[in-house]
Design brief:
Shape: elongated
Helix content: 10-25%
CATH architecture: Beta Barrel
Oligomer: single chain
Number of domains: 1
CATH topology: Porin
Structural class: mainly beta
Distance between the termini: 49 Å
CATH class: Mainly Beta
């Protein structure tokens, strides 16, 4: 029970931090648009057919866990639970929690019209997630509940393609929304790797994924460059878990990825 309260407290603290960041971005946007100089910086910037830049971002990677049908009723034998000292076991709960990560990448922008752009932002995304299992284990006539966490790291090469819709420019400020899709390759995928010890079970992920992405942000025009902030959600399509016939992988029907990202772009 204490483990659950501790984890929930950490999650609540992270959510509060993200809310504070969003509020700070909103306040800075209002002050920039209302009190900014009347002289327009980079007046011809958006008329260029193409331009380039880079971004840095903070992210949180999640899992959307869909448990297998009747997973709480399935009993796993000793061969299927090598890292538990028990005769048998069954899973009674599965949860996922994120760990903060970061992203870096390049920006290439193609002007489609006054309010629309086509954007390609190849980059690297570094992050990790934890899968938490509540397990009822049985040994002789005794039973007990244990909580086991499996940490999963990912390093994605990301190939996103977006349509960007921009509002009318107000002095040196402009709002925008983006939508599109991304193809990801996980360099940390370990489907062919073996655990360091036979008694250790490593939860492995598949290498490839596709995501649908949507974001909202603000452009700020400075004297020398355009600075942008964006909040983005990415929703995975593929089932990412690599099943190996044990209670950690086969208790899950589908494991899809989800990512929250706050990015800062310089163009």
């Amino acid at each position: 029970m204490g483990f659950v309260y501790f984890r929930n407290g950490i999650m609540l603290l992270k959510q509060k931090n993200f809310i504070i960041i969003i509020l700070l971005l909103f306040v800075s946007m209002r002050s920039f648009s209302q009190e900014g100089p009347s002289v327009m910086n980079l007046p011809k910037f958006d008329r260029a057919p193409r331009h380039f830049g880079f971004y840095v971002a903070g992210n949180q990677m999640f899992f959307v866990v869909e448990p297998a049908d009747k997973f709480q009723q399935k009993v796993w034998n000793r061969d299927q639970i090598p890292d538990l000292v028990a005769d048998s076991a069954r899973v009674i709960g599965i949860e996922s929690s994120p760990v903060p990560g970061f992203s870096i990448g390049l920006v290439s922008n193609l002007r489609l019209g006054e309010y629309f752009d086509l954007r390609f932002l190849p980059g690297l995304q570094f992050g990790e997630r934890d899968l938490h299992y509540s397990i009822m284990q049985f040994s002789h006539a005794d039973s007990s509940i244990v909580n086991i966490s499996k940490n999963i790291n990912s390093t994605f090469i990301d190939f996103p393609l977006y349509i960007k819709y921009k509002s009318k420019r107000l002095n040196n400020f402009r709002a925008f929304v983006t939508a599109g899709a991304s193809y990801k390759i996980d360099l940390a995928s370990s489907t062919k790797d073996k655990a360091e010890s036979p008694s250790t079970v490593v939860v492995k992920l598949k290498k490839h994924d596709f995501t649908g992405d949507i974001g909202v942000g603000f452009d700020f025009y400075t004297v020398y460059f355009k600075f942008s902030t964006e909040i983005k959600m990415m929703y995975g399509i593929n089932d990412m878990i690599f099943r190996e016939g044990n209670l950690y992988t086969d208790s899950i029907k589908k494991l899809s990825a989800k990512m929250f990202q706050i990015s800062f772009t310089f163009e």
